[in-house]
Amino acid sequence: MEVNLIEKDNVITAQLVGRLDTAVSQEVANALQPMIDKAEKTLVLDCKELSYISSSGLRIFLTVRKAASAKGGKVIVRDINNEIRQVFMMTGFLNLFEIQESNN
Amino acid sequence: MKSSKNAMTRFAARQGLLLVLVCVLALEATSIVQYIFSYKILSQESNGRAQGQLEATALHITGVMDQVETAVKNNVWSVQQQISNVDSLEAISRRLVQLNPVICGSTVALVNKNVAPYCWDEGGEIKAGTLATEEYDYKHQEWFEKPLECGKGYWSEPYFDEGGGDMLMTTYSVPVADKKGKAIAVLTADVSLDWLTELVGSVKVYPSAFNMVVSREGQIMVCPIETLVMRKTVQELALATDDSSSVANINKNLSSGEFGSSTIRYKGEVFYMFFGPVSRTSWSLSLFVPEEEIYGEIHKLGQLVLMLQILSVILIILIIRSTVKNSRKLRIVSENKNRIEGELKVARGIQMSMVPKIFPPYPERSDVDMFATIVPAKEVGGDLYDFYIRDNRLFFCIGDVSGKGVPASLVMAVTRSMFRTVSGHENSPQRILTTINDSMSDMNESNMFVTMFCGVLDLSTGHLRYCNAGHNAPVVVKPDGAKAFLDVLPNLPLGVMPGMAFTEQEIDMEIGGGLFLYTDGINEAENINHECFGDSRLMDAIQAGLSAHDQVEAVTGKVRDFVADAPQSDDITVLYIRFMNENATKKTERHLILHNDIQQIPQLAEFVEAVAEMAHLDVGMTMSLNLALEEAVSNVIMYAYPQGSDGLVDIEAVITDDRLKFIISDSGQPFDPTAAPEADITLDVEDRPIGGLGIFLVRNIMDEVHYERADGKNLFTMIKKLA
Q: CATH for B355-579?
């Protein structure tokens, strides 16, 4: 699992690469902490390279979402695959997150 | 028992004593015989030597006397011719002395007149005088009377010539007769006997030997003790010897006129006396040799031999004592050996009774056909096998303890009982071996180890879970005749390393197929040329379609034929299991065992993906299953066991035609995940709790979920129906 944070023009993008399972969830949560700290900005969770997410991953997403909503920021989940979309659907996350598809 | 031991000891002691006695007697007899022979030889030799000397001496003396006699006799005619001329007579005497060095004096003494001119040698100068003096009165001297008396030459008794310088002398005198045969004079020659002393003393056959020359009358003429010469007779001397019988001996011997020998004692010393005559003068020659000198060597030899014998006897006694002691020890050792062998036999009996030996073991069952045998080596070995059925599963194992003898058999017994105990509540071969390994490693102070193959065969499905701990790979036999070594991970043998994680494998057995298990007693069986039976011969000996009994017989028979007369060095153990359940449910099982470590989650993902592939599921469904399994398993990993303690999570996947079932079990604290409240997914971000999604996802993904607590375990079952 790999997390790349890119801050640009008031937008913080986190590229999530690999499988976000329970084994790595703590590590990912730590990696995303800078983003949570600046939750007043626009936070993008780039899931183009994310192949799998477990409930612990969903919890991290929810934590980010809650922080943004507390600080007036905004969370965009970008490019989730079908399987993750199904999980989002199942868990009602589709209602909580703004899902975007990048053009390419 | 005790008294028989004493009797044994007494017997051995008696034997030892007898042996010593025989040895001593043999040694003594040998040395006595040797002594006697040596004595004889020495005595013969000394006799020879002494007699030789005596004869030579006598010959020499006779020679000198002959010379004297001839010289004197040759002048008898001159005396007859010159009888009336006194001066001429003196000249005759002078010539005699002059021409014969042995003759130191000479006279012609007339019978009718008182005329006796005498010539003698005094330091090379011939002097002349007369014996016809009044005080000498030669006509009454022995040398004058005797020859006239007997009418022939006469040797006088030796005497000291006091007039002519203390010389030991003897005189030869011959009567001279006129033409009518009437004695007219006596012609004499004085012979100094100094040469005799010299002659007799010069020949020494033994260093301390000495000679004596004794005259006719027993006068000692030559003797190493100067004071005895001419002062004592041999009779007087004989009286001085230590025993009176030797007096008679000496007398008799010396007067016998023959050669011979005898012994005398003189001043505590024993002498050998050799004697012989000088016939012409009736003197006796005798040679005295201290006994020590003749037999000294043999006496020394005798002493040496005696000492050696004493030493040998002491040695023999010591050896016998130590032998007796050793034989006692040996007997104890052999008693111990017998006892140990007896106990080993009992041990082997106990060991053999530990493995199931009644075949067929399950005559009422038609789903399994099995046969096993252990052909024990001479010594107690450490091979084992075991099997039994629980919950319609056949638990079996085959193993080989390192080493041989009692230690191996003890470890074997312990291992076998651990197998029974652990497998009584564990369905996973990996867990069974891990547990056995941990307890064995803990108490393994003797560094014994066991190679073991452990299997659990589900008799309703033919699914075999197995784990190999360093044992030989069994042979899988397919109903169509194909056979191959089972794919086994080597792992370490049991007892080598505590905490070792063994890896489990699984396979589905075909109906009619078999699993042939064996120990290295088979493939490493050696014939007399030290060739191994080997894998290929083993493979050739295995044939599909044979009953378990026939198969085992076939292989052990082949091994027996191959080994022939070579001694069997190792146990030969074979276990053949055939899966025969015609009505086996067609299902596939897979198992995974994880530790309560969240980092093992990726292994779970691999496992789920493998199972999903076997069930031909698509990517979406695979991920959903993955998610559900991860939720359920991570739940157990994180919460079932107290923080910091080690625990395991079992995941069993069962694939049948219409559904996929996962059973997650753990031995942690009771926890029912299904009791958690349903998550409300309609809530706003602010109201949504962070957790609680796990079980929600599981419920949503799976078609059936249920929990039960049984045998101290949490069993969480999830079922997904397959389209």
A: 3.60.40.10
A91 vs B694: CB contact, 8 Å cut-off?
Answer: no
pLDDT digits (tens, 9 = 90+) for B446-496: 778 899 999 999 998 899 999 999 999 999 999 888 999 999 987 889 988
Q: Please judge whether A22 and B682 are an interchain contact, meaning their C-beta atoms are less than 8 angstroms apart.
A: no
Instruction: Look up residue B438 and give its two tokens.
Output: 């941990």
DSSP state of B139: G
Q: What was the pLDDT predicted at B243?
A: 61
Angstrom CA distances, A5 to A36, B80, B708, B716, stand at 12, 178, 45, 39
> Which pairs count as long-range contacts for B550-553, CB under 8 Å and 24+ apart, including other chains?
B551/B371, B551/B514, B551/B516, B551/B576, B552/B371, B552/B372, B552/B373, B552/B576
DSSP-assigned beta bridge partners for residue B618: none
Cα gap B466→B423, rounded to integer Å: 13
The pLDDT of residue A18:
92
Homologous superfamily (CATH) of A2-100 is: STAS domain (3.30.750.24)
Stretch B183-197: mean pLDDT: 84
* A22 min Cα distance to partner chain B (Å): 7
Residues of B in contact with A69 (CB under 8 A): 685-686
Q: Which two tokens stand for residue B222?
A: 């030559």
Rounded CA separation B53/B57 (Å): 6
| Nearest chain A Cα distance for residue B666, angstroms | 19
To test the contact with chain A by mutation, choose from B607, B619, B630 the residue with the greatest count of A C-beta atoms within 10 A, namely B630
Suggest the residue from B594, B600, B601, B626 to mutate for an interface test with chain A (most A CBs closer than 10 A).
B601
Give B631's contacts in chain A (Cβ within 8 Å): 54-55
Residues 6+ apart with CB under 8 A from B72: B96, B153, B172, B173, B174, B187, B188, B189
**CB atoms near residue B260 (< 10 Å):** 15
* Cα–Cα separations (whole angstroms), residue B658 to B107, B527, B586, B615, B654: 172, 55, 11, 10, 11
Look up the pTM and report it. 0.50
Which H or E run includes B404? none
Instruction: Give the ipTM of the model, two decimals please.
Output: 0.87
Specify the long-range contacts of residues B68-74, CB closer than 8 Å, at least 24 apart.
Answer: B68/B100, B68/B102, B68/B103, B68/B172, B68/B189, B68/B191, B69/B153, B69/B172, B71/B96, B71/B99, B71/B100, B71/B103, B71/B189, B72/B96, B72/B153, B72/B172, B72/B173, B72/B174, B72/B187, B72/B188, B72/B189, B73/B153, B73/B174
- Does the structural domain B588-721 have CATH classification 3.30.365.10? no
Question: Cα–Cα–Cα angle for B19, B22, B23, nearest 5°?
Answer: 85
Per-residue confidence (pLDDT) for residue B302, from 0 to 100:
81
Task: Note if the bond before B117 is cis, omega within 30 degrees.
Answer: no
- Cα(B149)–Cα(B156) distance, rounded to whole angstroms? 13
Structure confidence at residue B707 (pLDDT): 93
Query: Where are the domains positioned within chain B?
Result: 75-195, 355-579, 588-721
Query: Yes or no: is domain B75-195 CATH 3.30.450.20?
Result: yes
| Residue B694, both tokens | 């796990």
Q: Are strands B475-477 and B514-518 parallel, antiparallel or unpaired?
A: antiparallel
Closest by Cα among B393, B396, B485 to B432: B396
In this structure, the number of other CB atoms found within 10 A of the CB of residue B92 comes to: 23
The C-alpha of A99 sits at a distance from chain B's nearest C-alpha, in angstroms, of 15
Q: How far is residue B79's CA from residue B616's CA, in Å, rounded to a whole number?
A: 172
Residue A86 with chain B: CB contacts under 8 Å: 620, 624
CA dihedral B439, B445, B446, B449 (to 10 degrees): 30
Average pLDDT for B178-188: 86
Written as six digits, the tokens of B393 are 């599963």
Quote the DSSP letter at residue B336. Answer: H
> Is residue B710 within 8 angstroms of chain A, CB to CB?
no
